[in-house]
């Protein structure tokens, strides 16, 4: 086949390809063995994020964007995390999509999340709250004996959090 024009003849001829839009994977996945992940701190829209979300596990109750969750290992689903309820902590991540019971949801552990309803103080740590699904400030972090105290990130602006959720080693029980 011969075509006219001066376009590239092969994808390998373009060392810096740009999509100009979303990539439709047609049900396929990209397997990455070595990579550098860059978070886009310039996100400005409400209820947006930058990072690699966890997918493939459904919500076990209604969960909204920005709510903290834990993984229920018995039901195999995400539920709202709560620092002062037995078995509902530690936090495993923050929802970056909303979902009802049994619906697909995206959970972010590391990245940047933005919500224009927030009013954080920049540079301040944020914590898993003792209110189900909520995020607490340093001043409002759980303080009762037996509460889980878990920093989940740091505010980088009034409306953005740099998430660094560690459900394994990033928490302790208040004594």
Describe the protein's architecture and organization.
With 175 residues, the protein is mainly beta. It has strands at 48-51, 68-72, 77-80, 93-95, 107-108, 110-114, 125-128, 135-137, 148-149, 151-155, 160-164, 172-173. The protein has one domain. Helices cover 0% and strands 25% of the residues. The strands form three sheets. A six-stranded antiparallel sheet has the order 1-6-11-10-7-8, with no helix packed on it. It has a four-stranded antiparallel sheet with strand order 3-2-4-5, with no helix packed on it. Strands 9-12 form a two-stranded antiparallel sheet. A hairpin with a 4-residue loop joins strand 10 and strand 11 (160-164). The N and C termini lie far apart (75 Å).
Write the layout of secondary structure elements.
Elements: E1 48-51, E2 68-72, E3 77-80, E4 93-95, E5 107-108, E6 110-114, E7 125-128, E8 135-137, E9 148-149, E10 151-155, E11 160-164, E12 172-173
Antiparallel strand pairs: 1-6, 2-3, 2-4, 4-5, 6-11, 7-8, 7-10, 9-12, 10-11
- Count of DSSP H/I helices: 0
How many DSSP E strands? 12
The proportion of residues forming helix, as a percent range, comes to under 10%
Low-confidence stretches: none
Rough shape? globular
């Amino acid at each position: 086949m011969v075509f006219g024009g001066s376009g590239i003849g092969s994808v390998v001829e373009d060392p810096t390809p740009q999509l100009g839009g979303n990539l439709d994977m047609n049900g396929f996945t990209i397997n990455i063995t070595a990579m550098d992940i860059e978070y886009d701190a310039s996100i400005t829209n409400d209820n947006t994020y930058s990072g690699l979300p966890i997918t493939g596990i459904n919500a076990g109750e209604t969960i909204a964007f920005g709510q903290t969750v834990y993984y229920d290992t018995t039901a195999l689903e995400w539920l709202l995390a709560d620092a002062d309820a037995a078995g509902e902590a530690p936090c495993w991540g923050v929802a970056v999509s909303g979902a009802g019971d049994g619906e697909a949801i995206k959970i972010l552990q590391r990245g940047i999340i933005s919500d224009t309803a927030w009013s954080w103080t920049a540079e301040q740590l944020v914590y898993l709250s003792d209110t189900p699904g909520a995020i607490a400030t340093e001043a409002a972090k759980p303080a009762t004996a037996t509460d889980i105290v878990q920093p989940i990130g740091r505010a980088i602006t009034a409306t953005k959090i740099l998430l660094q959720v560690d459900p394994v080693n990033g928490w302790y029980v208040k004594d």
